[in-house]
């Protein structure tokens, strides 16, 4: 069992967490025409990288979503940021 | 002659006698003995039969490395299968039986199988039992194979404790290195936990019985233990570190005595120091599996710990320097020891009925016991569990720990440091995080590996009966990767997980192919290091604790009313009221249609969505348009996944301009809440929308039927019922608490859904029952409710929908065509799949009066010589209201087939029905306002 750092609650057991999504993936604006390929890419394409990855997780006990950076090979956790702070960084 | 107990020495208590039985004979031993040591001390040599050939076997090693002596053990009526004799502490009154042998290990009737060994090599089953069908032979082969038998009785109270703990430094192994490390770390202020699998610490110190830092081994061990405890360290003996997992998590199994489940410790350690020692490896020679051929280290352990001399006239075949102190110890204990270089010539164990000697080239040595040592192999399993690398040391002819996993360090023999003083220095330095001085090793070894082509039957894996010839066969058939070799020959796959056999096996493969050993490599090391019962993982997570039922506030009232409580979607709910299910359901349905029924709808989801952006958010979440819903009004709709499939259905009520109440299905509350929360935070401004699941805080009682309004009117709610149309919501009070009344209907009859603080539900129930008595009100269970809704063609998501259903399949196609704003799943509703003409659509199936109800799941098939399934029944009931069976189904081109007669098949039975609209009762909805 791994230990994940919730930005709000600190280090907690992995069983309290739920993987949610890949960050940086945006929903196409469906009020305009979206090609089947673009929609399929949005639905199904995941990077699933080896090594350093950024992922959105939910800490189920506090319900907060956050971005966690970790190594998918060594399972080392490199850090976590709240989704808001992460969105702020992305906007800058 | 075989083993004897010497008069002094060892860690046993000779003043107390323990009685036990083995294979029907009486024996005695002492506290401190294992089953194996007590039997050896009594002169027993044959303790088992091999897995495949039923060859007689004696113990090889003295601890977890022994592959041969496996017993079914009974104590006071409690029986455990597959107990390793070498690690099972002796208890007075034990009855042990060798597994895989009948009537006993000494004279096993299947012993004759060994004569056919020429035809029973690796892969023999796959090659032999192919024709006509493996399954023909499987039962009898399965019966022949396997080890212990389970008696089928449950041992009372066999429940594993599971503890969570943490420490700064976990020291795995309580030998010299482990003790020295634990003491150094504890005295430096670290929170230390020292774990050792023996009851008495000291590791291999008793083998040579030489002084340690000037003290007798027992005294030195006691000194270290006292110092560790004095410095605040903890010591767990009889406990095995059996696995290392991510982020410094170590799994520990603590032995709590025979027939008691071990205790699981999940120990989270900042650092782990591996001081697990090293194992002696066998030498591969002809008939090396004969009883009386043993590990040199094992014999030294039997002598040092249990005061057992394994033979009188002993030939020691050792290629390394660890034998020197052990030979001295054996001689001091009274054995005659002949040392020989195993590389001197071709080896063969000689025996008639008993081991009589060893042949070395042209020389024959008479002896009753052969102690073989092919060199020390560091016990690196935990290192590999954690992802550490191994390096090949040519000097030590062994794999030793290489690049370290994070937070882990190795010391002592486990690190390839076989000399005592350097091991102690290394352990103390490692404990404090310092690098030790490098000291030249005094350990000498002349590598000796299996020799391909050698004559005779040379055992590699004793427990699974894999010989050198099997490895050669695997190589010939191109199973040359060690992982393939393992699976083809089953080498290393037995309960001992190859502790003695893996090195010999991969060395044999290396020799056959002419490759260096490190290039061949090892197989993967996986937890558990020693066998542990499944119960260890199970613990108290049984029955209710696996997945606790959700309980209703009104459970007592339901039970009092005769409610049969059953599980529905994780909730314990009344299925029906009364002793007979069928009559109860019928009576409840008829009461709800003719007078009034009340049902407990508390599990129904009540998720509030609030905030300035709530309206736009809910409009985006729902398939249906919600933005036009006015406060006080309710709308039915679907939530989809982004792939267009239905996640849930239900009603949403607008409580105010910025406040919505989402009423999702009882069993979908968690998934809907998760979906809402995820969209709220990821894609929206979470400061402008708030999601709050209030389901457990509100209880809901729903009155339905022609008399429902009169009953609600009799309650003091302050709500005017006269101008209260269907699909609206009013707020009132009951007993001083806020009350919500929603006019929604899951039955098709006029219904009033009363929700209030859960604590007030009892009072409301009582008031409703009192007000309803003159109107023939009945409580309605979940089963009757399912019939009532099916009569109306109302679906249950997950029952009448599956993993392909989209809303337009259910007749809700308008938002798909008309809704302008974006919503979850919108684009997917226009995919080729969504537009396919042959989608399965919801229909009703009509059967004549007197027909039997269709089976749920029955397939609707095409007629003709090759029938094909075009749909299936999703719900089927007998309708007391209509006095005939009704059913819902998903059917290809369903909406175009109205009035068509279709054929159904189920379990060899055929039925016919007529396709109709899903709603079988009151299609105009007149009853809603009756």
Automatic annotation (TrEMBL), chain A:
GO terms for molecular function: sarcosine oxidase activity. GO terms for biological process: tetrahydrofolate metabolic process. Pfam families: SoxD. Gene3D superfamilies: Folate-binding superfamily. InterPro entries: SoxD, SoxD_sf. This is Sarcosine oxidase subunit delta.
From TrEMBL, chain B:
Residues 455-536 form the SoxA A3 domain. Keywords: Oxidoreductase. Residues 556-814 form the GCVT N-terminal domain. It holds the Pfam family FAD_oxidored. GO terms for molecular function: oxidoreductase activity. Residues 840-921 form the Aminomethyltransferase C-terminal domain. The keyword Oxidoreductase applies. One of its GO terms (cellular component) is cytosol. The keyword Ribosomal protein does not apply. Belongs to the GcvT family. This is Sarcosine oxidase subunit alpha.
């Amino acid at each position: 069992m791994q230990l994940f750092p919730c930005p709000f609650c600190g280090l907690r057991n992995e069983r309290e967490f739920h993987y949610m999504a890949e960050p940086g993936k945006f929903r196409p604006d469906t009020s305009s025409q979206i090609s089947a390929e673009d929609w399929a890419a949005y639905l199904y394409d995941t990077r699933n990288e080896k090594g350093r990855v950024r992922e959105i997780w939910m800490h189920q006990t506090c319900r907060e979503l956050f971005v966690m950076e970790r190594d998918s090979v060594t399972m080392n956790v490199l850090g976590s940021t709240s989704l808001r702070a992460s969105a702020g960084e992305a906007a800058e | 002659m075989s083993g004897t107990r010497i008069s002094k020495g060892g860690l046993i208590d000779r003043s107390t006698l323990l009685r036990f039985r083995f294979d029907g004979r009486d024996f005695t031993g002492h506290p401190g003995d294992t089953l194996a040591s007590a039997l050896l001390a009594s002169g027993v040599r044959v303790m088992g039969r091999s897995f495949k050939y039923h060859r007689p076997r004696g113990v090889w090693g003295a601890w977890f490395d022994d592959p041969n002596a496996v017993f079914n053990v009974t104590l006071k009526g409690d029986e455990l299968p597959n107990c390793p004799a070498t690690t099972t502490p002796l208890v007075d009154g034990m009855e042990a039986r060798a597994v895989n042998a009948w009537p006993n290990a000494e004279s096993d009737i299947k012993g004759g199988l060994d004569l056919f060994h020429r035809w029973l090599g690796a892969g023999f089953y796959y090659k032999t039992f192919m024709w006509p069908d493996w399954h023909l032979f499987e039962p009898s082969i399965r019966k022949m194979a396997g080890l212990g038998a389970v008696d089928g009785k449950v041992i009372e109270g066999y429940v594993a404790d599971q503890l969570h703990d943490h420490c700064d430094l976990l020291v795995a192994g309580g030998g010299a290195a482990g003790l020295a490390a634990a003491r150094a770390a504890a005295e430096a202020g670290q929170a230390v936990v020292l774990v050792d699998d023996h009851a008495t610490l000291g590791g291999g110190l008793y083998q040579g019985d030489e002084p340690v830092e000037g003290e007798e081994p027992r005294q030195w061990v006691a000194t270290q233990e006292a110092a560790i405890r004095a410095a605040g360290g903890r010591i767990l003996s009889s406990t095995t570190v059996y696995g290392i997992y991510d982020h410094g998590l170590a799994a520990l199994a603590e032995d709590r005595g025979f027939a008691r489940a071990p205790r699981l410790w999940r120990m989270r350690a900042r650092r782990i120091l591996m001081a697990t020692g090293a194992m002696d490896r066998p030498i591969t020679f002809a008939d090396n599996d004969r009883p009386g051929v043993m590990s040199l280290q094992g014999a030294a352990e039997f002598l040092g710990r249990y005061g057992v001399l394994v033979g009188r006239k002993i030939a020691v075949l050792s290629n390394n320097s660890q034998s020197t102190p052990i030979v001295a110890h054996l001689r001091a204990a009274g054995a005659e020891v002949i040392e020989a270089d195993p590389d001197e010539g071709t080896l063969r164990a000689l025996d008639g009925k008993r081991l009589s000697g060893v042949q070395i080239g042209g020389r024959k040595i008479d002896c009753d016991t052969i102690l073989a040592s092919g060199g020390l192999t560091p016990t690196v399993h935990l290192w590999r569990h954690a992802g550490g690398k191994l390096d090949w040391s040519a000097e030590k002819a062994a794999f030793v720990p290489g690049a370290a996993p994070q937070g882990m360090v190795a010391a002592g023999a486990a690190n390839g440091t076989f000399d005592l003083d350097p091991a102690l220095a290394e352990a103390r330095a490692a404990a404090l995080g310092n690098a030790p001085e490098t000291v030249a090793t005094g350990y000498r070894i002349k590598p000796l590996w299996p020799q391909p082509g050698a004559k005779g039957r040379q055992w590699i894996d004793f427990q699974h009966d894999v010989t050198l010839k099997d490895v050669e066969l695997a190589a010939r058939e191109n199973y040359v990767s060690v992982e393939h070799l393992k699976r083809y020959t089953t080498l290393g796959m037995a309960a001992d997980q190859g502790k003695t056999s893996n090195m010999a096996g991969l060395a044999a493969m290396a020799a056959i192919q002419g490759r260096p050993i490190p290039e061949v490599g090892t197989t993967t090391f996986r937890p558990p290091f020693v066998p542990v019962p499944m119960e260890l993982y199970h613990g108290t997570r049984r029955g209710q604790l696996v997945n606790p039922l959700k309980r209703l506030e009104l459970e007592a009232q339901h039970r009092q009313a005769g409610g049969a409580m059953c599980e529905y979607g994780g909730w314990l709910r009344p299925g029906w009221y009364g002793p007979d299910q069928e009559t109860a359901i019928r009576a409840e349905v008829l009461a709800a249609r003719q007078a009034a029924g009340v049902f407990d709808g508390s599990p129904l989801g009540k998720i509030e969505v609030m905030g300035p952006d709530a309206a736009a958010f809910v409009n985006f979440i729902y398939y249906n348009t919600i933005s036009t819903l006015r406060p006080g009004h309710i709308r039915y709709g679907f939530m989809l996944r982004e792939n267009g499939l239905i996640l849930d259905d239900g009603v949403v009520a607008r409580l105010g301009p910025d406040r919505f109440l989402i009423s999702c299905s009882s069993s979908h509350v968690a998934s809907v809440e998760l979906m809402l929360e995820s969209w709220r935070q990821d894609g929206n401004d979470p400061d402008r929308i708030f999601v709050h699941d209030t389901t457990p805080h509100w209880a809901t009682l729903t009155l339905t039927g022609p008399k429902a309004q009169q009953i609600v009117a009799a309650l003091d709610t302050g709500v005017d019922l006269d101008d209260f149309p269907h699909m609206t919501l009013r707020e009132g009070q009951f007993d001083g608490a806020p009350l919500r009344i929603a006019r929604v209907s899951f039955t098709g009859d006029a219904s009033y859904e009363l929700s209030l603080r859960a604590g007030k539900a009892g009072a409301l129930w009582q008031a409703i029952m009192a007000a309803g008595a003159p109107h023939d009100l009945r409580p309605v269970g979940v089963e009757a409710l399912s019939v009532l809704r099916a009569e109306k063609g109302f679906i249950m998501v997950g029952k009448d929908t599956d993993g392909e259903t989209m809303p337009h399949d259910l007749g809700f196609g308008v938002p798909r065509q008309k809704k302008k704003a974006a919503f979850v799943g919108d684009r997917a509703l226009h995919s080729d799949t969504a537009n396919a003409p042959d989608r399965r659509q919801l229909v009703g199936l009509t059967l004549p009066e007197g027909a039997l109800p269709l089976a749920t799941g029955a397939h609707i098939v095409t007629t003709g010589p090759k029938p094909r399934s075009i749909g299936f029944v999703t719900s089927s009931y007998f309708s007391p209201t209509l006095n005939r069976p009704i059913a819902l189904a998903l059917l290809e081109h369903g909406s175009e087939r109205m009035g068509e007669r279709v054929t159904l098949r189920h379990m060899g039975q055929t039925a016919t029905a007529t396709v109709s609209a899903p709603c079988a009762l009151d299609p105009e909805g007149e009853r809603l306002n009756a």
